[in-house]
Amino acid sequence: MKTYIEERAVEIANYIIEHNATVRQAAKSFGISKSTVHKDVTERLTQINPGLAAETRKVIDVNKSERHIRGGMATKEKYAHQHVM
Which phi and psi angles does 2 have, rounded to 5°? Predict the structure, then answer.
């Protein structure tokens, strides 16, 4: 694996842990796709730093379990700003 990919995987993992970020937020912050973020933190990071990968996995799992709530809140917010005629 190329060095810059390893460094990126570690940077993404640290970002996710520090900011309690979702995969989507990390992808936007780093200017890469969600698939790349997911691959970096689930596959590549386990080879590079298993401890960091485990910590990152915990944050990702919590975010995954809460995503339906965030989606509902986003929908509620969307309709709250629309005017009823």
Answer: -75, 150
